[in-house]
Amino acid sequence: MAIKLVNLTKKYGDFTAVNNLNIEFEDNKLTVLIGPSGCGKTTTLKMINRLIERTSGDILFNGKSIDDINPIELRRSIGYVIQEIGLFPHMTVFDNIAVVPRLLKWPEDKIKKRVYDLLDLVNLDPESTAHKYPAQLSGGQRQRVGVARGLAADPDILLMDEPFGAIDPINRETLQDAFIEIQEKIKKTIIFVTHDIREAIKLGDKIAIFKDGELVQYDDTQNIVQNPKDDFVKDILGEDSQFKALEFVKVSEGL
After folding, report:
1. From CA 90, how far away is CA 188, in angstroms rounded?
2. Does residue 25 sit in helix, strand or coil?
């Protein structure tokens, strides 16, 4: 599904969190939003599924204004994965993943197949994992369940807000590698917020760099690394960005 932001603006009193943002996200690509704290990247993400209402501008889904789409139906059609994961502690892994399909009144046999298929997809054994509770899982396992839940209703769009940010570095690398493999299989339109440029280069087909609520540069990952627009972008990329880019190519090609 194509998503287009047109003159998108969000203000809180005199403070402008997002200013006149124009960007089009490509179908079946992973776009990373990155920038300093408070730059507007998470606010932008939350406006896309109407967790935050915009002040002005528009958000188009396949050319249709967000105002013409029922907010509840919109959120059900968009997967959402956050750093805190948000799994319900009193519910099993199976029931956590099944939340949205049950809201959509899927038949139970279809739900079971979907849950087990998704656990397979995120490299968790369905038989040994489905009936555990979140407290019985490691942090990395809980995050995998969070990704599975975000994909449960087979949404066209997946929004991810620093999903691996709370994971230790070793498990974070493992989750990133696994997610690259998952995206190769599912080919969703993914908008992914991070503060980690290494993660952005590793995962992103495209990168959007934000500063003070405005879009500074938006391009294919390799083009941004090779042709940073200004000193701010160079600072975000860091001195070893070319080496980071080489590592990204190796991971994506499975070398």
Report:
1. 30
2. strand
CA 198 to chain CA centroid, nearest Å: 16
The enclosing H or E element of 45 equals helix 41-48
Q: In the CATH scheme, what architecture does the domain 3-77+157-253 have? A: 3-Layer(aba) Sandwich (3.40)
Please give the C-alpha separations between residue 137 and each of 129, 141, 142, 143, 149, in angstroms, as whole numbers: 9, 6, 6, 10, 15
Bridge partner list, 61: 3, 64
SS3 (DSSP) at 164: coil
User: pLDDT digits over 179-190, tens only?
Assistant: 999 999 999 999
Q: Specify the pairing of strand 56-61 against strand 64-65.
A: antiparallel
* Residue range(s) of every CATH 3.40.50.300 domain in the chain: 3-77+157-253
pTM for the model stands at: 0.89
Residue 114 one-letter amino acid: R
| Segment 134-145, tens digit of pLDDT | 999 998 899 899
Structure tokens at 189: 């339109």
